[in-house]
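Blinded run. Sample ID left blank on purpose so nobody reads anything into the name before looking at the predicted structure. Input follows.
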Amino acid sequence: FKCLVNHDGNLDERLAYYDTEELWFPEWDHMGKPWENPEHYEKHNPINFVQNWKTPMLVVHGGRDFRVVETQGISTFTALQRRGIPSKFLYFPDG
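Blinded prediction complete.
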């Protein structure tokens, strides 16, 4: 790929669990709560693989997304920038 697009994505699945009122999806996807099944939350948690990132990325996030807080997008962009990976952050405060 020449570029990946991250649209309202989580950087840290553990933290994201506590940032939303919609808990059915993470509990279903990870087969339980973080303290009940921590291995499953860690297995595919993007924050654990930042050191492997190489592909440029466009991070898109909206300020009115109440399920994935904007700090998840900002954190992803920060990780990309600190790794020196070409990246842009596209933020829609009313979107």
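Unblinding after everyone has recorded impressions. The longest helix spans residues 70-82.
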